[in-house]
Each structure stands twice: as C-alpha cells, then as structure tokens.
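Worked example 3 (structure in, sequence out).
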C-alpha cells in the first residue's frame, strides 16, 4: 500500500513538473501587454480604443498611440477609424503613430461606445510591454475641451476578445508629454472631470504646455503647435516669410507715397517760381 502511495506521489510530482515546464516555456515565448493580455511571439493582435459618454459631438482632436519597437511591430495598413471622417494620420513614426481629425460639418458622435482607432501589432519578442496613448486636443463645436467622456480599449487575439472595455495606459514619458501637451488633460481613469468617480483626487499625466498659435481657416479656429518638428517648423517658416513679405510691402508703400509727395512738392515749387517770374 505504501509503495502505491509513493508511486502516486511520484507520478503527481512528475506531472506538476511537466505542467510547470510547459507554462514556463509558454511564458518565455509570449509577451504580456498592459498586464492584461498574453500573445505568442510571431502572432498578431488587434488593439482598439473606444470613447463613450461624450457630452457633445467632437469637432476635432489630435492624439497619439505609443508602443515599444523592441517588442511590437505595427501594421500600418491595418490602421482604421470607424467613427471619424477626414482623418490625417502617420503610422510610420519610431515607436508611435499619430492622427488628427477636424470636421466642422459632421461632428463625431461618441455618446455611446464607439471605436476611435484600431490597429494590428505583431509580437517580435517575449517580455512585458504596454501600448499607451496621449491626447493633445479633443474639443466640441464651440472649441471647448470635452469634460465628460470615457476612454477604454479592447484587445482581440486569434479572433477572440481577450481584453474588453478596460482603461488604457496613458503615456507618461517626459520625452513625449512635454512635447505634446495641449489643452486636453489625460486622466488615468480615462474619464473627464464631469463624469469621473474620483472627484476629490482625479489623477492625471500632464506635461509642459507648448505654445499655441490660433489660425483662422474657413471660419474654423484651428491651433498649430509651432514648437513641433516637421509640420510645426514649416508653419514657423511660413509665418517668418509672411512677416518679411508684409514688412517689405509696408516699406515699399511708404517709399511710394513719400516719392509721390516729393514730386508734388516739386510741381508746387515750379508753379511758385513761374508765378514769381511773371510781371
């Protein structure tokens, strides 16, 4: 009897070791995303962000999605926007993608849960990583920053939703937030001040606010960050060139009218001389 018990114990121990080894092998070949999802190396998953509970239609926004290139590779052809029209985006940046939306005629309705953006990632190596987001601007038809909303995310893997309706991770690297901070405040609970449950201690990630220059475009007030690289530096160049052109035009105008006045004075002087020469 004792021999049978020892045999059973040995058998169970062996099985536990096999299971543990299998689990360890699987973990060594998986990446953990946002501490909530495991995906095998070489496989692809879909990350989608959603907005709900918006108190008004969204006329414009600018946002970013960050990821670690050591662990993940984005499929730029998979980037999609179900709810937004006229989106301009760039998925070929190093470690993040960005998108900008503005439509003065058709406001985006996020009163109920609707997809904001979706994209596929391929897992490059095992470990732990996060997919993060940061919103610079999100405003309504009156150019007022939204104060009631709920931001969530899903992860779909092997055609199954393995993460649903969870709070996304906010990017907190100073490298990015100090560069992209706008009027929108990125709260850690993914909610606005008007609909959060954390009224007394609403934690947020806030960077240094950059300089904003208002621009009027078809009666729609837009704001361009002149401190950004790329398009921002182009805007700065355009502003400087336009300023030089206006200054040159002003100088030319002054010289023209001054020259015209001098000629007028010369004519008057000649007339006076003619009058004086007459008997």
């Amino acid at each position: 009897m004792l021999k049978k018990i020892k045999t059973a114990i040995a058998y169970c121990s062996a099985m536990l070791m096999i299971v543990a080894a299998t689990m360890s092998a699987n973990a060594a070949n998986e990446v953990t995303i946002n501490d909530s999802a495991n995906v095998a190396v070489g496989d692809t998953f879909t990350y989608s962000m959603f907005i709900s509970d918006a108190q008004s239609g969204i006329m414009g926004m600018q946002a970013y999605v960050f990821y670690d290139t050591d662990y993940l590779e984005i499929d730029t052809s998979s980037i999609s926007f179900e709810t937004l029209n006229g989106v301009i985006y760039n998925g070929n940046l190093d470690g993040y993608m960005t998108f900008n939306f503005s439509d003065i005629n058709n406001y985006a309705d996020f009163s109920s849960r609707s997809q904001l953006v979706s994209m596929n990632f391929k897992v490059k190596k095992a470990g732990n990583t996060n997919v993060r987001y940061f919103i610079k601007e999100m405003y309504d038809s009156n150019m007022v920053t939204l104060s009631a909303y709920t931001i969530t995310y899903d992860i779909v893997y092997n055609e199954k939703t393995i993460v649903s309706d969870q709070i996304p991770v906010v990017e907190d690297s100073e490298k990015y937030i100090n560069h992209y901070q706008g009027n929108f405040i990125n709260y850690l609970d993914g909610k606005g001040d008007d609909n959060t449950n954390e009224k007394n201690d609403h934690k947020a990630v806030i960077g240094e606010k950059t300089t904003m220059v208002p621009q009027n475009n078809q009666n729609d007030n837009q704001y361009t960050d002149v401190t950004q690289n790329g398009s921002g530096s182009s805007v700065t160049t355009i502003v400087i060139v336009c300023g030089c052109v206006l200054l040159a035009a002003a100088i030319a105008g002054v010289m023209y009218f001054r020259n015209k006045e001098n000629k007028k004075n010369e004519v008057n002087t000649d007339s006076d001389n003619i009058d004086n020469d007459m008997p």
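Notes: Residues 229-268 form one domain. Residues 19-25, 211-247, 266-279 have pLDDT under 50 and may be disordered.
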